[in-house]
Design brief:
120 residues, mainly alpha, 4 helices
Protein backbone atom coordinates (compact mmCIF):
# COMPACT_ATOMS: atom_id res chain seq x y z
CA UNK A 1 0.00 0.00 0.00
CA UNK A 2 2.84 2.44 0.71
CA UNK A 3 4.10 2.03 -2.82
CA UNK A 4 0.68 2.95 -4.25
CA UNK A 5 0.56 6.10 -2.13
CA UNK A 6 4.08 7.06 -3.22
CA UNK A 7 3.17 6.55 -6.88
CA UNK A 8 0.14 8.83 -6.49
CA UNK A 9 2.29 11.48 -4.81
CA UNK A 10 4.84 11.45 -7.62
CA UNK A 11 2.10 11.83 -10.24
CA UNK A 12 0.79 14.98 -8.57
CA UNK A 13 1.57 18.19 -10.49
CA UNK A 14 2.94 19.62 -7.20
CA UNK A 15 4.17 16.58 -5.24
CA UNK A 16 6.17 18.58 -2.70
CA UNK A 17 3.57 21.29 -2.12
CA UNK A 18 0.60 20.73 0.19
CA UNK A 19 -2.75 21.94 -0.98
CA UNK A 20 -3.84 25.27 0.58
CA UNK A 21 -6.64 23.68 2.60
CA UNK A 22 -4.43 20.95 4.11
CA UNK A 23 -2.83 21.19 7.55
CA UNK A 24 0.95 21.35 7.35
CA UNK A 25 3.10 19.75 9.99
CA UNK A 26 2.30 17.73 13.06
CA UNK A 27 3.31 20.51 15.42
CA UNK A 28 0.81 22.98 13.99
CA UNK A 29 -1.91 22.13 16.48
CA UNK A 30 -2.79 25.80 16.93
CA UNK A 31 -5.45 26.93 14.49
CA UNK A 32 -4.29 29.51 11.97
CA UNK A 33 -0.62 28.49 11.73
CA UNK A 34 -0.49 27.94 7.98
CA UNK A 35 2.06 28.71 5.27
CA UNK A 36 -0.63 29.29 2.65
CA UNK A 37 -4.00 30.99 2.84
CA UNK A 38 -7.20 29.61 1.35
CA UNK A 39 -6.32 31.10 -2.07
CA UNK A 40 -2.90 29.42 -2.15
CA UNK A 41 -0.98 32.65 -1.47
CA UNK A 42 1.45 32.98 1.43
CA UNK A 43 -0.30 33.60 4.73
CA UNK A 44 0.07 36.80 6.72
CA UNK A 45 1.91 34.83 9.41
CA UNK A 46 4.44 33.52 6.89
CA UNK A 47 4.87 37.00 5.39
CA UNK A 48 5.58 38.40 8.86
CA UNK A 49 8.22 35.72 9.48
CA UNK A 50 9.87 36.33 6.10
CA UNK A 51 9.97 40.09 6.78
CA UNK A 52 11.61 39.42 10.16
CA UNK A 53 14.29 37.24 8.55
CA UNK A 54 14.87 39.80 5.78
CA UNK A 55 15.16 42.58 8.38
CA UNK A 56 18.01 40.73 10.09
CA UNK A 57 20.15 41.01 6.93
CA UNK A 58 18.85 44.08 5.05
CA UNK A 59 20.37 47.50 4.42
CA UNK A 60 19.53 49.82 6.09
CA UNK A 61 18.81 47.77 9.20
CA UNK A 62 15.56 48.32 11.10
CA UNK A 63 15.71 50.71 14.05
CA UNK A 64 16.98 49.15 17.26
CA UNK A 65 14.33 49.02 20.00
CA UNK A 66 15.11 51.14 23.02
CA UNK A 67 16.19 49.34 26.23
CA UNK A 68 12.86 50.39 27.79
CA UNK A 69 11.04 48.20 25.25
CA UNK A 70 11.70 44.77 26.71
CA UNK A 71 8.99 42.96 24.79
CA UNK A 72 9.76 40.47 22.05
CA UNK A 73 8.42 41.40 18.65
CA UNK A 74 9.14 40.67 15.03
CA UNK A 75 11.49 42.99 13.17
CA UNK A 76 10.08 45.02 10.30
CA UNK A 77 12.39 46.12 7.49
CA UNK A 78 12.37 49.81 6.49
CA UNK A 79 10.43 50.65 3.31
CA UNK A 80 13.60 51.27 1.29
CA UNK A 81 15.42 48.18 2.53
CA UNK A 82 17.31 45.90 0.19
CA UNK A 83 19.60 42.90 0.49
CA UNK A 84 23.18 43.78 -0.45
CA UNK A 85 25.59 41.16 -1.78
CA UNK A 86 27.21 41.15 1.68
CA UNK A 87 23.81 40.66 3.36
CA UNK A 88 23.03 37.79 0.99
CA UNK A 89 26.38 36.16 1.80
CA UNK A 90 25.76 36.55 5.54
CA UNK A 91 22.27 35.07 5.23
CA UNK A 92 23.56 32.15 3.13
CA UNK A 93 26.38 31.51 5.61
CA UNK A 94 23.96 31.60 8.57
CA UNK A 95 21.45 29.26 6.92
CA UNK A 96 23.61 27.01 4.71
CA UNK A 97 27.07 27.26 6.27
CA UNK A 98 28.64 28.94 3.22
CA UNK A 99 27.95 31.82 0.83
CA UNK A 100 26.19 31.03 -2.45
CA UNK A 101 28.30 30.34 -5.51
CA UNK A 102 28.16 32.77 -8.43
CA UNK A 103 25.72 30.61 -10.44
CA UNK A 104 23.21 30.66 -7.57
CA UNK A 105 23.58 34.42 -7.16
CA UNK A 106 23.01 34.93 -10.89
CA UNK A 107 19.88 32.77 -10.72
CA UNK A 108 18.53 34.79 -7.78
CA UNK A 109 19.15 38.04 -9.66
CA UNK A 110 17.34 36.63 -12.69
CA UNK A 111 14.16 35.74 -10.81
CA UNK A 112 13.97 38.37 -8.04
CA UNK A 113 13.61 42.14 -8.12
CA UNK A 114 16.99 43.88 -8.02
CA UNK A 115 18.15 47.47 -7.62
CA UNK A 116 20.24 49.24 -10.25
CA UNK A 117 23.30 48.30 -8.18
CA UNK A 118 22.34 44.61 -8.27
CA UNK A 119 21.06 44.35 -4.71
CA UNK A 120 17.98 42.24 -3.99
Amino acid sequence: MNRQLEELRVQSPRPGTPEPDSRQGRRNGVAGVQLLDSDGAISLQLESCLKHIFAKYCTPPPPTPSPAEKRIELLTPPESAYLSPEGLDTWARDTNGAPFDEATKEELMEFLDVTEDGAL
